[in-house]
Amino acid sequence: MDKLLSSRFNHESLSGDYIFPPELRPGDLKIPFGSNISVIDLSEAENGDRTNTIQKIIKASEEFGFFQVINHGISENVMNEARSVFKELFEMPAEEKQKLCSDDPSKTCKMFTSSVNYATEKVHLWRDNFRHPCHPLEQWQHLWPENPTRYRECVGSFSVEVKKLASRILSLISEGLGLECGYFENDLTGSVLLTINHYPPCPEPSLALGITKHSDPNLITILLQDHVCGLQVLKDGNWIAVQPIPNAFVINVGYQLQVISNGKLISAEHRAVTNSHDTRTSAAFFVAPTDECVVEPAEALTDEHHPPIFKAFKYKDFNSHYFAKYADTETVLKSFAAQKG
Ligand code: OGA
Ligand code: NI
Fold first, then answer.
1. Helix H segments across the chain?
2. Which CATH superfamily is domain 30-335 in?
3. Distance 136 CA to ligand 1 centre (A)
4. pLDDT given for residue 340 in this prediction
5. Nearest CA to ligand 1 atom 10
6. For atom 5 of ligand 1, which residue has the closest CA?
7. CB of 272 closer than 6 A to ligand 1?
8. Quick one: which of 120, 200, 220, 259 has the fewest CB in 10 Å?
9. Each residue of 30-64: pLDDT tens digit?
10. What is the tens place of the pLDDT at every residue in 253-304?
11. Cα-only R_g, the chain
12. What pLDDT sits at residue 341?
């Protein structure tokens, strides 16, 4: 595996293996913020306006597949501690980070540069990544890094809070879709993977990408985007930037929620661009079904007039298909479409 970007000394020019073909490059660095991506105040749901909050969440998930939440109840202190420990992680000496690196596909807790397909990919991504499962905490926490010394404690508290937040949001979504209470409180949310992206300043941001266009394979993603811009969402064929809001989380619908909602909610394609001034660190919690969990359109949402548009599958089969193909959203979802006729 090549050296982490964060362990190399200077990035004065962009080497050719980071330059994307013209049709995939970000090009324009001044993409406007999508002011119509909803910012939802979650405290309103508790203060008597639950129905209104639910409507806003469902509308945003139908139109954009993305929204942001503020006043979500996770304390600033817990967030700041996690943010600072994520930064510390990538600022550790190269030897310390090297201990966490692996290109073994079966290793669940690992650091790498670009993507897990480094050896075979045509163009590399301008990012380093560290990922590991975090739910249930007791099963995974002892496998997390010993350095930074505060990592296990800070990330442990943060991930427990984020899991609770995901449950609250999913309960609003299930109510909005007309599903029974607790619909997602089982194997559909049995796995949580934390992936931390570290994007150093890039010498040619218009030619490189932090993450290429994709939809998330899981159920729902809770993303701490940091104060530096970089996340863009594809809406009606145009890229729009997601504005960083201090202490907000960006929430996006994954493929599984699109399937369960029988196509009502959309897993929008998105990407991460880089910039030439600031390091950006984002942390995404991928809330996902367990491997053996069977995913299919919810029965309550289908009848003879609204037949299921997806077939039932095991999550692990979806996942292996997704990573083998790494195709655009339309192609991935077509493979899981219900048979016609
Ligand atoms: C992801 C992702 C966006 C970001 O990790 O799947 O889309 O802003 N990240 O880092
Ligand atoms: Ni993503």
1. 43-46, 50-63, 76-91, 94-98, 137-140, 151-177, 255-260, 315-325, 329-335
2. B-lactam Antibiotic, Isopenicillin N Synthase; Chain (2.60.120.330)
3. 23
4. 60
5. 282
6. 284
7. yes
8. 120
9. 888 877 899 999 999 988 799 999 999 999 999 99
10. 999 999 999 999 999 999 999 999 999 999 999 999 999 999 999 999 999 9
11. 20
12. 46
